Amino acid sequence: MKSLRFGLSLVLLLTATAAFSQTATQKSFDQLKTLTGSWAGKNAQGKPLQVVFRDTAGGSALMSEIIGEGHEDMISMIHLDGPNRLLLTHYCGAGNQPRMEATVSPDGKAFTFNFFDGTN
Fold it and tell me: Considering the entire predicted model, what is its pTM?
């Protein structure tokens, strides 16, 4: 019985340690996932535009869909690449897929996605 209690205590300790050992990048990704929902605005020409954020793939990706550009509606997928790298792949209406890596401001309030390569 003691070994069962010890084993259970060890599992709980390891689980708690894993929860507190999230990297800053993982915390940033979790912060981005709070955008989940539908957002309305206007594009550069003043036409209505909707952006929908959806948590998908078991929480491992955040999908951003831009609606209102006609046949050129676009999707971006944001996901972690390991514990310290946050990536975005944008599926553009022009038929290309730029990939970008996020940097987070020191205060954690702003994300900048910097281009590093593209396909097609």
Answer: 0.74
